[in-house]
Design goal:
This protein is mostly helical. It has one domain (5-110). The protein contains 6 helices and no strands. The protein has helices spanning 5-15, 23-41, 43-50, 54-63, 72-82, 92-108. Helix 1 crosses helix 2. 18% of the residues are buried.
């Protein structure tokens, strides 16, 4: 699944782990965080590493109606379309952060236009 530009900005904002006021933003941030820990070291390691925050990750999955991480991105897209008010508006800082990310990726991939 490919995300559109606003979906990518919201997804990347959640990956940054910053505090968020939108219930959808918090759920996405927490679900992505727990998913990353599980993908990195397995389920037991994920919950152990998450410490007291593991429950927030589980609640994040439940917000998106998931019982596993395989469909998180698709569930995010569907929920954003159904309840955009649950997510903070896209801010200039989100767009600037995405531009920085794309520039860094270009440099890492050897794109001369990124220099």
């Amino acid at each position: 699944m490919r995300l559109d530009s606003d979906q990518t900005l919201i997804w990347n904002r959640a990956c940054g782990g910053r505090d968020a006021s939108g219930v959808g933003d918090r759920a996405l941030r927490d679900a992505i965080g727990l998913d990353g820990l599980i993908q990195n070291g397995g389920v037991p390691n994920g919950f152990e590493t998450a410490g007291d925050d593991w429950l927030d990750g589980v609640i994040g999955f439940e917000y998106f109606g998931l019982d596993d991480s395989d469909r998180l991105q698709a569930a995010f897209v569907a929920r954003l379309a159904a309840a955009p008010e649950d997510f903070e508006p896209i801010a200039d800082a989100d767009r600037a952060g995405e531009a920085d990310t794309q520039e860094l990726l270009g440099r890492l991939m050897g794109d001369p236009a990124a220099d």
